[in-house]
Amino acid sequence: MTKEMEHIRDRDQTYSPDESIPILEETLKNTDDNMSKFVEPHLREYREPEVIHSGERSYFGTIPSFGWSVPMTFTFPEKWNQHMRPRLSQIPDVLPMALRYLVWRVYIWLKGRQPFIDMFTLEGKQIYGVPLGGIGSGSIGRGFKGQFCRFQMTPGLYTYEVVHANQFIVSVRDTQGTRLYQKVLTGASDPGTLSAWDWSYDASNGDYLGLYPRAWYTYRIPEENITLKCEQISPVIPNNYKDSCLPVATFLWSIQNESSEPKDISLTFTFKNGTGTKNDAAKKCSTVSFQVNKDGVPIHGVALEHVIEGIQTTYGIGCLEKPDVSVTHMISFDLKDGSDIWHKLSRNGRLDTESCSYEISKGEVGIAVNSAGLVQSNSSLEMVFCLVWDQPLVYFKGKEHIFKRYNFYNYTAVDGCKTILL
């Protein structure tokens, strides 16, 4: 390692969004009138006092008072898709490139390969927010209503499905153990799957703010006088490529109990294998619970090994255990209607505690981690979740392969997810 690389490695710099204020303001001034009319109302809306984010302190620093802020009921005034239709006057200029692309596309099709530049099956949707993941590690998209969508795990290949089994679920109970509230935290409508789950969260009580590489989701539950805030963080750090190339995201939840009674509140993070395509059920899947320690603080989680596009991949989800927060897990749950995990949460807001593993030769598997704690009246509690996708080796059709950048820093092999979590 060169002295320059050692210098960069040893520097301890953190991301400060305030440094971007002059750049954003100047960009907004130079934006055309139509864009200004679209963006400025949302910036003003975010600065109003009733929005709980503005000016508050979080575990990771000051939440900025600027960014793309919309309610979860937001719909874009203009409908667009990714299919470009050139004007007649543009056809002479576009035609040579189009013919060259068609010849290449036919060649790729005859070879039985999937084109990494696919101009015919673009499926982008007007739902996207700030994605998850570091630089060059692949990414998992998130919608501004809380969806997990648009997976880009293999270089050049994208899937645009919304994976409905990837969710956060909140359960609220009183001190006697009576269930008061349990719903999926999403601003999207009922997807018609996982029918045992309650998808009726009122999206008008939710807000979103995106400012890459972070995003903030706010969920208000007025009937219980509870507010949940989720700060989503991806490791994009100036002058620190070692950590910035990690395939990981952190979700810091702040739970505020504004009622006159203490509440037992749990959050459950669920995730399934694959990327939401029909190929998810075609290969072997295996799961195992694990525990690792960071500076004496235990992290409990579940690792899910599966195959994406013929490449061995491991998802890992975990929770930080603290004195006031207990962590449980589930190494597999039913993806047909989700009744098994939903009924467990309905009983006591917790999942399983024993260490175990699970394996199927072919099919789909869902995993979950649960974090629970007692939130006193007019107080708050923080819970930390993390997501890792370990796909160290990428194969190409020409039998070439590469290691992703994070492998250069010894994040490798079977324990890759555990190592990255640390």
Write up what this structure looks like:
By secondary structure, this protein is of the alpha+beta class. The protein has helices at 3-10, 21-30, 33-47, 91-110, 241-244, 339-348, 416-421; strands at 57-58, 61-62, 68-71, 139-142, 148-152, 159-162, 167-173, 179-184, 206-211, 214-221, 226-233, 248-257, 263-272, 285-294, 297-308, 311-320, 326-333, 357-360, 366-375, 379-390, 393-395, 401-403. A ten-stranded antiparallel β-sheet has the order 3-9-10-11-12-20-16-15-14-18. Strand 7 and strand 8 form a beta hairpin. The longest helix has 20 residues, at 91-110. It is globular and about 70 Å long. It starts with a helix and ends with a helix. Mean pLDDT is 81; it is low at 1-61.
> What is the number of beta strands?
22
Sheet with the most strands, sense and barrel status: 10 strands, antiparallel
Mean pLDDT: 81
Structural class: alpha+beta
Radius of gyration: 22 Å
> What count of helical segments does DSSP give?
7
What is the CA-CA span between the terminal residues? 22 Å
Q: TL;DR?
A:
The chain is of the alpha+beta class. The chain has helices at 3-10, 21-30, 33-47, 91-110, 241-244, 339-348, 416-421, and strands at residues 57-58, 61-62, 68-71, 139-142, 148-152, 159-162, 167-173, 179-184, 206-211, 214-221, 226-233, 248-257, 263-272, 285-294, 297-308, 311-320, 326-333, 357-360, 366-375, 379-390, 393-395, 401-403. β7 and β8 (179-184) form a beta hairpin.
